[in-house]
## 1
Amino acid sequence: MVIDNRRAVVWGSALLIAFVQVVGSFGAARGQPDRLDIDAFAVVLLLVGPLALAFRDRWPLVGAAGPLFAADVYLARGYPYGPIFLSVIVGLVSAVLAGERRRVWVVAGLGLVGYPLVAHVIDGPNPGLAHLAAVAGWLIVILAIADVVRTRKVEAAERSRRRASDERVRIARDLHDVLAHNISLINVQAGVALHLMDDQPEQARTALAHIKTASRDALQELRSALDALRYGDERATRAPAPGLADLDRLVESVRAGGLDVRVDIGPGLGPLPKPVDLAAYRIVQEALTNVRRHAGARTTVVRIRDGEQLTIEVLDDGRGGAAGEGNGIVGMRERATALGGTLDAGPRPTGGFAVRASLPLPVRSP
């Protein structure tokens, strides 16, 4: 038999509250000689609230209204004050946390109004205005605290959902960049291998080696991304994030596909923050992939400068504008704006296509 742990907790807490209310009320009665003695009917009322709480996970308003109704009758009869308020507090707070905020306020208002009405009907002790005001203040404080707790829980859940969504977007963006780059390279090298297989087998073998390397890199990144989606970053085995230190390897893979790539890195480029380093690498990677797939270019220049901002330019001499505003450019722009930077992409006046990005850098000590 399968036991629902949540139901077990709800019923267990209801039984504990019932025990506290019954035993505690007998103890509290000793110091209140002016109130009625606890009899069988009082015990029934002390158990009504916990019984309603046993169903608060399924019917939150029942868990709020049941204890209030029992407390109204109990107090209107003149029984001793005591821990009967415990079930009222638990019922109200649980209902607010369950999302029944407005209805709980209505239930609490009806419970407050019902207290003097029940006292009048059964000819019990008449609560004065000061007493009702104290009860009203007590209810308002409980509901206000419950509202604050619920708001913080909702905000925490929203932050968690936002982090999960941002992580999925990041993984999707990385997968797009890596797979687009490597599959494009595989496509080019496969064409080269087929063309040279009979006449120049050594060069065909080199192209196949590039295909093997590109496919291995793509599979590793895909496996890491799937692990992150399946297990979360805590259990996922991820390779170190690439950066501009890996630019030479990236450029060599592009050159192997037949595109002439020239790299111009300004002097004094020091260590970069990891997010900036990764974004810079991915922007160059995606820009080169777009050139190879869409531009029909012969030569591409990658220019990187370090100052108050890290500036990246990828300039080609191709058709210009052939790539369009596809996912690649959108992804590059999202990477830049996520760090507070900018990215522009479009045809060059002199021909070809240009991608220009600026990524802010932290202020460095002199």
Note: Residues 5-127 form one domain.
## 2
Amino acid sequence: MKCPVCDRELSELVLGDLRVDVCRGGCGGIWFDNFELQKADHPSDFAGVVLEEVERDDSIQVDANRRRRCPRCEELVMMRHFFSQKRRVEVDTCPGCGGTWLDHGELDQIRRESLADADRRRTVEDYFAGRPKRA
């Protein structure tokens, strides 16, 4: 498969039961087949930690406005949309296969947002349980 950003050949990376395709040495983007992103988007997921460190070429300029073709369904253009209700991270998803493309750094943003949500939930739970506030 070809990278939808820099046209480099994607490399398969196996992390436990998760298989993703990464643009190693290129733009650093990551391709998740349908439902794979959920295995790496939480801050405690090992796969996410590794995927945040995919080697990339800093000289490659990523055009965030460029429409991208799906690396799996080459004839289809992916749809760009916000990943969460907070509307902080925009991702590209294929309308055909349901796969998701993340540019370098977007997984880190998603994971940080999840961490903030988890901290907020714990604070509320602690409050209602009568536990003292954490430092």
Note: The beta strands are 11-15, 18-22, 30-32, 79-82, 90-93, 100-102.
## 3
Amino acid sequence: MSTKQSLISEIESLPANIIDEVYQYVSFLKFKQNSITDNATATGVKPSVESREPFFGCMKGKVWMSDDFDAPLDDFKGYM
């Protein structure tokens, strides 16, 4: 039995409300695929499934640390 036939038989065994959810999910997947294809056609760029590798310095300017980061907390003054 092919994957397609197995999927169809599994879907047929589901209750009606779950079948509606499966239909909505399949519609979403088709929309997503069409969006990727349309965008690739418009820009001339082939969509990539792989994510971009992080590189040294890629977070520069995105992280902020307070000037008093190392200063003792008021809660611990009694212990010092």
Note: The helical segments are 3-12, 16-43.
## 4
Amino acid sequence: MEVKCVSCGHEFNLDHWVFDDYEGPVKCFSCSRMMEVKTVKGRVDSINSLGTFENKRYASLAEIRD
């Protein structure tokens, strides 16, 4: 099944049987954006962008929330 990145528009296939009924993260192969993808019976049901953390290291989860 074809998935289109919500950030860069790159299209890629999720053909493996694991993705027939799947809900979880998928990384764009082109721009590295993380997306939450839900598929049902081999068809894309929804795609949502997940927040990204820039190339910054955090000491604790409290810093991420601020």
Note: The CA atoms of residues 39 and 45 lie 5 Å apart.
